[in-house]
Every structure is written in structure tokens, then in C-alpha cells.
Amino acid sequence: MKAIYLNIMQSAMPKYQLEKLKKKFEEDGFVVLKNYLDSDQLDDLRNRAINLSSRLMKDQESKDKYHHVLKSLNRQDSWFDDELKNGSHVEILEALLGFKPNGVSAAWFDRPIGDDIGIEPHKDAYGSDKSEKVGATIWISLDKASRDNGCLSYLRGSHKKVYPDIIPIPGIEKNSEHAVFVELNPGDAVVHSSSIVHWSEGNQSLMPRRAVSYFYFGAKI
């Protein structure tokens, strides 16, 4: 099943658009923002992310199977810290969640050409404080993300169900009628609940699949 895309720029959105997004987010557990970044914003984010990730990966002493994922960029670069706390997406997340979330981490996600290791079904809220409301993640695509190079996949509506805090979550049917493959163009973004089940496959294409995400926990209950 394919995702429904909403054409929304990063600039301030009218109330009716935010209400439409919120309804979709509450129903499905995720919402896609087409053309979220303009070309200049995309170039700036891509250049900053590539430069920082290249430096950090060069300094890595050991490499596990997920070494192409770098979390806590906000602790390494003040620009990413400011975006995590004050980026224009924070207002969108607040509208979707109904409260201002707590920024936790800015992250780099790379799925290089030939990397056949995906990420199995999981939820971002794994191991989180149960006294917190559900948070959210915004995932901004720097390249074209397709089924061939490991786009994100969601189990639509799974944020409404309870799953064990296990990675991978057992018993998830990746080809279920509720599975949605979210294919994105550079500059598109997807916002998802930290409780939704999602995954991605390996990169079987000749194109890279890079992204930057900002992860947020919910407010204290």
C-alpha cells in the first residue's frame, strides 16, 4: 500500500492544514510532508549532515552493523542542537501531538549502495519512560527514497496497539494490507508517532538513501 502525500512547505501553515494533518496523523500514526524543504534548505541540511557524519564516522573505533546510523548529532554541532530545539518542524509536531515535545536526538541515517542490512520492525518508544506521553520523529529525506534503496515502511494504525519492547517486534507481517511503503523525493519529510511499528529494507539499488531525523519524547503525564 502506498502512502497519501500532502504537499506542504516548511513555512507557516494555516490552521486548517494543521488540523488536516493532525486528523491523518491520529488515524494512521504518520503523515508525509511533500516538498517540506526548498532547494536551498535541502542543500544546507545535506551539506551540514554529510560533513558532520563523515568526520564522526572517520573517528569511529569500532563498527557494528548499524554504524551508518549516527545519533545525537545535536551534541556534536550547535546547529543541529538549535534545529532540534527550535526548528520550524517543532511547531508542526506540537500541533500533531497537542503539546510541545521534548527534543532528544538529531540523527544521521545512511543506507549506502550495496548495504543489504535493513532495520527490522520496531518502535522508537522502545525502552522509553512510561510516565511520558507518546512522542514523534520527523525524518527528512536527503535523497530519493524508494522500495529499492530502503525507504521507510509503516504498519498503518499500529500506534494504537500495544507491542512488546523487543527489537525486532515479533509477528509483524511486512506484506500486510496495512503495510505502507513511504517513497520520498529529496526534501520530503515524514512525521511518525514514536509508538508506530516501522522498518526499512536494504539498499538494492545504485542510489544512496540518506536522511536526517529529529526524535522527540512526549511531555510528562
UniProtKB/TrEMBL annotation:
One of the record's GO molecular function terms? 2-oxoglutarate-dependent dioxygenase activity
Which metal ions or organic cofactors does this protein require, according to UniProt?
Fe(2+)
Superkingdom of the source species: Bacteria
Q: Which Gene3D superfamilies match?
A: q2cbj1_9rhob like domain
What protein name applies here?
Answer: Phytanoyl-CoA dioxygenase family protein
Query: Taxonomic lineage of this organism?
Result: Bacteria, Pseudomonadati, Pseudomonadota, Gammaproteobacteria, Cellvibrionales
